[in-house]
Amino acid sequence: MPKKPGLTYRDAGVDIDAGNAVVDRIKPLVKATFRPEVLTEIGGFGGLFSLGRGRYQDPVLVSGTDGVGTKLALAQRLGQHDTIGIDLVAMCVNDIIVQGAEPLFFLDYFSTGHLEPDVVVDVVSGIADGCRQSGCALIGGETAEMPDMYPPGEYDLAGFAVGIVERNELLDGSGARAGDLLIGIASSGPHSNGYSLIRRILELADADLESAFEGNRTLGDVLLEPTRIYVSSAQALARETSLRGLAHITGGGLTENVVRSIPASLGAEIDQGAWTRPAIFDWLAEHGDVAPEEMLRTFNCGIGMVAIVPESDADTAVSICERLGHPAGVIGRVVADTEHRARFL
Hints:
Blueprint: H1 16-31, E1 59-66, H2 71-78, H3 84-97, E2 102-112, H4 117-134, E3 137-145, E4 155-166, E5 181-186, H5 195-204, E6 212-214, E7 217-218, H6 219-223, H7 231-240, E8 245-248, H8 253-257, E9 267-270, H9 279-288, H10 292-298, E10 303-309, H11 314-323, E11 328-335, E12 342-344
Parallel strand pairs: 2-3, 9-12
Antiparallel strand pairs: 1-4, 2-4, 5-10, 5-11, 6-7, 8-10, 9-11
């Protein structure tokens, strides 16, 4: 009697050949992000990146890791996978630039129950796009096929960014002074925060994601708008102004994040009338009956990054951001108020 063939990894739900095919397809996407400092091709066990001799005097590496939360659930529901990778890069690099870092390289982690090559390639194309916008190299990653860990059609993402800054150029907010102005730099929408609440509101409102919302965009389009990447503005502000600090407006919203970038002896006074809140936030507040305080603590409400500069640099800071395609304006000031760390007018 002929012997039955033994089990293979494919029989267990993992297709090595499909994984190899994905690597071949994403190689040109990844290579397009490389900087001169990258020393390895994709496919090695580790990514190599040279800092170069004599380029830095006292360098500090700054690292960050993040995901995109349950915004993934909307992307998967709508079958739109080509921009969620931009969100992934943005959430990581926007954190490290707050400390003055120049993003150097990025790594990603993609996990799913069953590998769908087209989906992986779409996701990685977005990651590569985000890396190009950030000026950093995508030097490695992991694609994990894990049967029985995820329902069909679902996947998860994580990202890891590393940047560099001279020690004497680190931004920690300690230089902020009462009277400094807060420059609010516009968000592109909810970015990648608050989506558990957003999805709950969508459910309660029985909302149609395909319905028209703004111009020729649907509600789904607006909610999947990629997170804005602020690397170019942050770098230019550091070069051309006496930048005191930066605050990435993520979880905790304007309520908690601005005061993280100033000394504990100071507070932030924010004028809510200083910018026009995008329509999507009004829609969420109305359909979810979300209180104003909860909106400010959960969402960025139209401000994705806040720069802290001396009053004398405010006009220059706004011009820099506008020049780089990031709408901005003065939204408040640093005050000597420890009783109300963040006060809204």
